[in-house]
Design goal:
By secondary structure, the protein is an alpha+beta fold. It is 50% helix and 21% strand. It folds into two domains: 80 residues, SH3 type barrels, CATH 2.30.30; 120 residues, no CATH class.
């Protein structure tokens, strides 16, 4: 009987050690072992998926790359790690206050793609603000309903489509003058080198024009040319 009890205790102790040891073995296998780390020449990268971890140990996710598809990151470090018994390569990236480690396979060299929908939305908001700040009812009416670059460009092209029958006062034309110049400021420098230079010269001429009742026809011609040129370029963005 005594021998049986001793045998039972030995078996029980063995089971306890095995059960207790299992989690330790699993935890050890899941831990990240850093094999090497090195600084690299800073380069721009971007990506569409993958977790960004707060440390090279890859234990805590701080960001998800899918939320930053249009963000350009700067890679400054690389490391070789061993996780789940397999070797992997990770890269340290940073963009503003956001930073962390990500598996290198998720990164693509170069700047992130242009987020046109977001840029267009911001531009149209800025355009409406620019028109409102001038007090020009004519320009405000033409740009307020625009939802795309094409809509806005066509609207600006046709701001003075009815100029032949439009009997605007010098005051109203000065308001239109200010409105067009404000909108130009939103898009200044966004076109080709030649187009930017031509627009800048036209804007300078429009700004310098002293509109009065005596020169309203010349003022109309100057504003029409500027509005149509700017509108055509915006429509093609």
């Amino acid at each position: 009987m005594q021998k049986f009890v001793k045998t039972g205790l030995v078996v029980a102790m063995g089971l306890t050690m095995t059960v207790a040891g299992a989690p330790l073995t699993a935890n050890a296998a899941s831990k990240t072992k850093v094999l090497s780390t090195r600084n690299i020449k800073t380069k721009t990268v971007h990506g569409r998926q993958g977790n960004i971890y707060s440390s090279v140990k890859l234990s805590k996710v701080s960001h998800k790359l899918k939320n930053y598809r249009y963000t350009t990151w700067h890679a400054t470090k690389k490391a070789v790690v061993k996780k789940h018994g397999k070797k992997a390569y990770v890269t340290y990236i940073k963009s503003g206050a956001k930073k962390g480690w990500i598996y290198s396979k998720y990164l693509t060299n170069g700047k992130a793609p242009f987020n046109k929908p977001k840029q267009m939305k911001n531009d149209l908001i800025a355009t409406n603000r620019a028109a409102l700040s001038s007090g020009s009812a004519e320009v405000q009416d033409k740009v307020s309903g625009s939802s795309t670059y094409s809509d806005l460009g066509n609207s600006l092209t046709n701001v003075y489509a009815d100029m032949g029958s439009y009997g605007g006062s010098a005051k109203e034309m000065r308001e239109n003058q200010a409105g067009l110049l404000n909108i130009y400021d939103v898009y200044k420098g966004r076109f080709s080198k030649t187009q930017n230079a031509d627009l800048a010269a036209m804007a300078k001429k429009v700004e310098a024009f002293q509109i009065s009742d005596e020169n309203d026809e010349a003022a109309k011609s100057t504003l029409v040319t500027f509005s149509r040129t700017l509108g055509d370029l915006i429509a093609d963005l």
